[in-house]
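Archive entry: two folds, one per protein. Generate the first.
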Amino acid sequence: MDEVSARKDAEREAAAFLKVEEAALGRRYEKELMNPKEGLALGSISSLVMPTDLRKVLGENLAFLLRHYKPSPMSGPQREFH
């Protein structure tokens, strides 16, 4: 086998190996990190809401925030930057 064909063979094998490894890493990433339970455990998200309950939960959370909102200088949505 000459050098050129050996190099092409090695590159082809390396590309196939990389493709398999990238797919395995992608599956591992999705399984371990891209799931809602992991987000809950890490504190990235506070709760899981089913799509059928989304409107109710959003309404409850907005009502809570509006009940507990106390305007003060330079805080909240009334801030103005000049």
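Generate the second and append.
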Amino acid sequence: MRLLIADKLTRAPSKNSRTLPLEVIYEPELTRETLENHLKGVGILVVRSTEVTAQAIDSAKQLNLVVRAGASYSTIDVRAASKRGIYVANCPGKNASAVAELVYGLMIALDRRIPDAVASLRAAKWERQEYGKAEGLHGKTLGIAGLGAIGREVAGRARCFGLNVMAWSRSLTAARASDLGIMHAGSLEELAAKCTFYRFTSR
């Protein structure tokens, strides 16, 4: 069986897939328009950002499985795959750490006004006093709406920055929040009223 990786993935997944009894084809430059012409004999298709259209699915006569290396099915025409009896899978939580790191990068950038400071410096200005007025993250309260894989990763990193964490989720109870070492909000309104920073995630 042929396995086509039609997207840019890190080396580990590509390398590990070659240990399976499969013919692995790695073509990260494929696009929505060109994918269809590379599916002949392919039984398993792996994508991330590359869009898998109904037309591409209909052309892949031996396709049995489409895997999205991400948390959703947003790039795959699931309805077309279902009509053909093709199984579609994803990798929930795969990018949780990367997203959590980005959250803190953006929080610091906002607090320190890094984009504005960079623009000022590129304009040959040195406004040290203006861009030294950051309040910092320490002691602030971070609100997390939706305590899924990403939300838990964000909460887990909060202690390093001295942040307090309050979370709301339809499935989160006060007891569970206590076990996680975070505060529980009874509603989104309460969360917004009591927090300084917010991270909204999917359930």
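Annotation attached to the second fold: The chain has a mean pLDDT of 89. Residues 96-112 form the longest helix (17 residues).
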